[in-house]
Amino acid sequence: MVKTNTVVRPTPRALDTGVSSTIKRLETQDYDVLDVKFSTNACGKDEDSALVEYCAMIIYK
Questions:
Q1: C-alpha–C-alpha distance, residues 16 and 55, integer Å
Q2: Could you read off the pLDDT tens digit of each residue along the chain, which spans 61 residues?
Q3: Which residues contact 10 (CB under 8 A, 6 or more apart)?
Q4: How far apart are CA 35 and CA 5, in angstroms?
Q5: Against a cut of 0.90, is the pTM above it?
Q6: From edge to edge, which strands make up the β-sheet containing 33-40?
Q7: Residue 10 and residue 22: Cα distance in Å, rounded?
């Protein structure tokens, strides 16, 4: 069965750290990571706003 895990962080660097640690945890539990999809609500001048979120959806089975 395919599952997903969503990681949301306030900065790209924090997202990278969160995704890496989540993937490592999944792999130690014998899950296979199939794909990672990234998205953000940041655009233009809003990139420094406190409302910006960087997201990743990790797809695994």
A1: 10
A2: 999 999 999 889 999 999 999 999 999 999 999 999 999 887 766 556 667 889 999 999 9
A3: 50, 52, 53, 54
A4: 11
A5: no
A6: 3-9, 54-60, 33-40
A7: 16
